[in-house]
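User: Please predict the structure of the protein below. I'd like the answer in structure-token form so I can feed it into my own downstream comparison script.

Assistant: Understood. Taking the following sequence of 211 residues as input:
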Amino acid sequence: MSDSTGPRSALQRSLPVVGEPRPERADARRNRLRVLEAAERLFTERGVKNVSLDAIAAEAGVGKGTVFRRFGDRAGLAVALLDEREQELQAKIISGPPPLGPGAPPAVRVMAFLDAYLDLLDRHVALFMDSENASDGARYRIGSYHLWHRHLSHLIEAARPELDADYTAHVLLAPLAADLHNALREQGYDLTRMKAGLRAAATNLLPDPKA
């Protein structure tokens, strides 16, 4: 089943190949990144629904027509921003330096992923909420969830082969639901507290090999 509402990045629609060439001119890429950076700043400061294309264009120093032609509307821009940030995380996991990338012990890589994902979720929780709540159960059908789940399950299997890696990966991803993260923020939990709690739970499952 596919979801037709809510912003969904390329990772959430399918699983792109990192490094796949994009036929994009250098000037077009510069403008795209300027617009995305401006949108990220304004979304963070004002909230996604309180930012207009005019404001984003002015912040980026480009014409509104440039933004409209490239992204269509605010929802399209939100999708593009989520796409860019998720693919950056994917690239770091696949080929970045350890501990997020290859080269660190599996349990250490799990902790690094949880930290990195929480940072991403905290910066863009409104976008993730729209995506994950587009329809009932949407979170568990989108491509990015399957990608993160597969990454964690492989690491868990390597670190603790006696565990059910598939189920344990779901357990670690459960606290990363956007609506839960947002609810905790509204209750006064800060990012440091959430990271510490999640890391402690993960450590019980996957003890640090250096400890």
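That's the full token string. The chain has a mean pLDDT of 87.
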